[in-house]
């Protein structure tokens, strides 16, 4: 059974952490078509987390077509999303990031500096989308 | 069942002890199905508000309505729908756990003894043990099991985890969240500890100096607030929005603003704010005892 975790210090809203963990697990093949996600009550109890948060995460995953909720049975993983990125795109994006990271390290940036830079760029992009 | 969309509504609610107001001008409406955190420093009026909600205190001014009814009426119909766990989760120390269950069954209109017994069995808490001989965490679990056995529509908890060690806190929250998932009740609890609230609560009430300074769904509150960081300025804060808090260093000014998400001026960076920082900012705000309106300062746009 898939195991969620919550990092209180990450700054990412808890529901989004759950969504990202499923997304990532599907992407990396840890979750496959037909796998059942734990029940909302099970996740709420294990993580000591608000069940509304879990329900919200599951709703979003359904909207993204990653999972399907079947009343009375549970929530099941769909086949790998066609609209999502292909394995080739994933590999290529990952390579690009690795190249960039090597350049950053060569320029003397440590892990914290890399994270700060990455976060600043992501936030800037987010703000530009809002504005 | 009556049709009530609000678990809790107060209007101008106040409580005065002799000449001191413990709570004043408290106007809230909280929908059902939420897990609500009541946050504030000691003496802010948290316990007073909770006691008004469960009908243990009568208001000096204003009104309070729980699940569409007045708890001050103290009718069994209202009280059977409210569960209350007082601070330090008091139990009769010389009663065995079984005695306490027996008492719960005898004193309540609704009492699901089987539910309580299943919960206690899961936690390996022996029914023949005296309450006083249980660990603090176990006593808290027994008190919670008794409150949940009422199958309340609103569960009110006053600092439920204050005296518990980290493991017992986690186990308590696990039991509570499991119960919320199973029964869908509304939970209102007070706490000082903000970091653990974000995963548990979806609604927030901040009390400071006897007044509500912030209230709403947490997600909405976090989306409405932004931290703006820019070059130092003490005047002409031409940012869109309402400044909640401004702090200045040699070169930078940091503003916490509440707004509808307007664009950022050049040279300024907008960052999201976390729940803990948001709560702390509202707790640091100076209070204006004599001013009726909330203490927002409008910023020229």
CATH architecture title of the largest domain in chain A: Orthogonal Bundle
Helix content of chain A: 55-70%
CATH topology of the largest domain in chain B: Rossmann fold
Number of domain units of chain B: 2
Total beta strands of chain A: 3
Rg of chain A over CA atoms, rounded to whole Å, is: 17 Å
Task: Provide an overview of this structure.
The complex is a heterodimer of chains A (131) and B (301). Chain A is built from 5 helices and 3 strands, in the order αβααββαα. Chain A has a 3-stranded antiparallel beta sheet with strand order 1-3-2. The relative contact order of chain A is 0.10. In chain A, a hairpin with a 3-residue loop joins β2 and β3. The model of chain A has no long low-confidence stretch (mean pLDDT 87). In chain A, α1 crosses α3 and α2 crosses α3. Chain A is mainly alpha-helical and 131 residues long. Chain B is α/β, with parallel strands linked by helices. Chain B folds into 2 domains: 206 residues, P-loop containing nucleotide triphosphate hydrolases (Rossmann fold, 3-Layer(aba) Sandwich), CATH 3.40.50.300; 80 residues, 2-Layer Sandwich (Alpha-Beta Plaits). In chain B, the strands form 3 sheets. Chain B has a 6-stranded mixed beta sheet with strand order 5-6-7-3-8-9, with helices on both faces. Chain B has a 5-stranded antiparallel beta sheet with strand order 13-10-12-11-14. A 3-stranded antiparallel beta sheet of chain B has the order 2-1-4, covered by helices on one side. In chain B, β1 and β2 form a beta hairpin. Chain B is elongated. The C terminus of chain B is likely disordered. Classes of the chains: A mainly alpha (131), B alpha/beta (301). At the A-B interface, α2, α3 and α5 of A face α6 and β13 of B.
Question: What would the keywords be for this entry?
Answer:
heterodimer, A: 131 residues, mainly alpha, Arc Repressor Mutant, subunit A, 2 domains, 3-stranded antiparallel sheet, globular, B: 301 residues, alpha/beta, Rossmann fold, Alpha-Beta Plaits, 8 helices, elongated
């Amino acid at each position: 059974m898939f195991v969620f975790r919550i990092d209180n210090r990450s700054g990412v809203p808890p529901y989004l952490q759950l969504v990202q963990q499923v997304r990532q697990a599907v992407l990396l093949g840890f979750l496959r078509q037909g796998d059942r996600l734990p029940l909302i009550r099970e996740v709420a109890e294990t993580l000591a987390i608000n069940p509304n948060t879990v329900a919200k995460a599951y709703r979003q995953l359904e909207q993204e077509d990653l999972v399907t909720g079947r009343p009375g049975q549970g929530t099941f993983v769909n086949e790998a999303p066609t609209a999502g990125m292909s394995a080739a795109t994933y590999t290529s994006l990952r390579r690009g990031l690795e190249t960039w990271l090597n350049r950053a390290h060569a320029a003397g940036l440590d892990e914290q500096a890399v994270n700060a830079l990455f976060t600043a760029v992501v936030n800037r992009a987010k703000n530009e989308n809002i504005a | 069942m009556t049709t009530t969309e609000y678990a809790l509504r107060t209007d101008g609610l106040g409580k005065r002890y002799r000449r001191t107001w413990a709570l004043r001008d408290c106007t809230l409406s909280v929908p059902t199905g939420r897990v609500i955190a009541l946050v504030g420093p000691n003496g802010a009026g948290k316990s007073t508000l909770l006691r008004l909600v469960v009908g243990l205190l009568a208001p000096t001014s204003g009104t309070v309505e729980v699940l569409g009814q007045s708890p001050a009426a103290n009718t069994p119909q209202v009280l059977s729908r409210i569960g209350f766990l007082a601070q330090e989760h008091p139990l009769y120390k010389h009663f065995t756990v079984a005695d306490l269950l027996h008492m719960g069954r005898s004193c309540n209109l609704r009492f699901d003894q089987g539910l309580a017994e299943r919960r206690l069995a899961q936690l390996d808490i022996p029914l023949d043990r005296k309450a006083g001989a249980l660990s603090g965490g176990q006593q808290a679990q027994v008190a919670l099991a008794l409150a949940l056995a009422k199958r309340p529509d609103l569960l009110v908890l006053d600092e439920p985890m204050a005296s518990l060690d980290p493991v017992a806190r986690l186990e308590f929250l696990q039991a509570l969240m499991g119960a919320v998932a199973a029964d869908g009740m509304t939970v209102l609890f007070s706490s000082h500890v903000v970091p653990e609230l974000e995963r548990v609560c979806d609604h927030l009430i901040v009390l400071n100096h006897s007044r509500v300074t912030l209230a709403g769904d947490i997600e909405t509150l976090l989306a409405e607030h932004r931290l703006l960081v820019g070059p130092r300025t003490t005047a002409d804060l031409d940012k869109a929005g309402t400044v909640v808090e401004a702090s200045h260093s040699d070169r930078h000014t940091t503003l916490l603003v509440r707004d509808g998400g307007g664009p950022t001026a050049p040279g300024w960076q907008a960052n999201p704010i976390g729940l803990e920082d948001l709560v702390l900012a509202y707790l640091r705000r100076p209070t204006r005892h004599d001013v009726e309106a909330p203490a927002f300062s409008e910023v020229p746009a």
